[in-house]
Amino acid sequence: MERKKRSIKKGLLLVLIGLILMVAQACSTKSNSSNEEASKTEGTKQGGTLNVVRLSDATKLDPHFITDIPSANVVYQKVYQGLVVPDKDFKIQPLLAKEWTVVNDTTWEFKLRDDVTFHDGAPFNAEAVKATFDRLLDPNTGSPQREKFSMITEVKVVDEYTVQLSLAYPYAPLLSILASQEGSILSPKALAENPENLAQHPVGTGPFVFEAWKSGQEISLKKNENYWGKKPNIDGVVFKVVPEDATRLAMIETGEAHINDQVPVTEIERIEASETMGLYRTEGLAVEYVGFNTKKKPFDDVKVRKAISHAIEREAIIKGVYNNVGTLANVAMSPKVYGHSKEVKPYNYDLNEAKKLLKEAGYENGLELTLLTSDRKERINMAEVIQSQLKGIGVNVKIQVMEYGAYIEMANNGEHDLFIGGWGNATGDGDYNQYNLFHSASQGPAGNHFYYSNPEVDQKIEAARKETDEETRLKLYEEVMQMEIDEAVYIPIRNYEHMAAHSKNVSGFWLNAANYLMIDDVVIK
Length: 525
Prior knowledge:
Blueprint lengths: L9 H17 L6 H7 L9 E6 L14 H7 L8 E3 L5 E3 L2 E8 L2 E6 L13 H12 L14 E8 L2 E6 L6 H5 L9 H6 L14 E7 L3 E6 L12 E6 L3 H10 L4 E2 L7 H6 L3 E16 L9 H10 L2 H7 L6 E2 L22 H10 L6 E8 L2 H15 L3 E8 L1 H9 L5 E7 L5 H9 L16 H12 L3 H17 L3 E14 L2 E2 L2 E2 L5 E2 L4 E2 L1
Parallel strand pairs: 1-10, 1-11, 14-15, 14-16
Antiparallel strand pairs: 2-3, 4-5, 5-7, 6-7, 8-9, 9-10, 11-17, 12-16, 12-17, 13-17, 18-21, 19-20
Helix pairs in contact: 9-11, 14-15, 15-16
């Protein structure tokens, strides 16, 4: 990373470098033979359209309103780019910004590229960066991403290709959040002329240009012939919605499709035995959990939440539902994320304690509740296992399976009781987990689907995001995660392992630790 003209206290500089290096170390991905095969680019064959088959369609394509991975995956590093980007080891690298300077604790300066144009012909410059962040931070925009950047108080245009971000307080993981999809830079022309249209028609600076979206069917992108960087080898990419797991795999096997990045764990042996398919696997930053809507009865009572927590046998879910893909989670933060602590322990499996707590809460004669899940096969299987396990304490569970978009909408509106959820950390930093999942300001679309609010937790999360001493920051995260477990806000289930089945005639793709499909170097034989 090139960082010139730096003026900053030596101690803070070392802390910031240390934090970035820790994120990088924590997020390096293991590769296996299949991974290496998938990421090899053989020769320089040009052309062809990459067909990616997926379970769910996107919900919207405006980065300021995207709150789910299936939507972000279509545009991140394809249509849209940010000032900086994480590499394969999650180390932050220059992208639209050539270099940056930490002027002081609360001022960051970015020198921008001068050879970039948006897909609609608008020039990329400091004004474009300002227009993007001004829109994101404007309360009237109503962006669920606003809180993620709430430390930015002003975006200053220094000259045409220099921009400064003024912060309300020192914020150690600033680069990591700028490198996430939320940090995408949008066309100022599109923002000025028709910002609402960006939900269906994204306009960025990336290697691919948006072409068409047939809702519920497919989204197509074509190669950006005027791209400022290395142009893609392929002519375009189509993201096809294919809800049936078996059909998606059959399409990969026959060569009708190239990549399926949502692979059922039950199909691993079949893929590995196939002559035409390969399997890509990498550890992820995401965590899966069972969450409580703490605002709704009976889950406004911590004893009920603790009872349910004691009654779910998590190990059985990892083995029986997930075929040991991924690892048992202890908190809602992956061990690969900066801020994780193995010292925080979830509730043990104890049916007697669960029954005792239910009795104390006044539900001696049982309880009826609804468990919401999206329509992913493993999640439905998990719901059925939980339904069976909770019968053991007299709790009858009705399972509500919804298509992904409807599931997100219901959770965003707080209409659920109990739910199976996941959080795909996009930055590798604990702030992205804690602020978005548990801070009172993040209730609803921003990520806090527990509708949890605790002023002391809020205060500790805010203190952690401002803290520049590494040891103190890690201690704060450990304390706050312990409080969330003590209050039984959720039940941690699984640390993700991301998988993709691919046709053996495609190479050069990879999944990053946040589960984004990276296709810059894809080659189709």
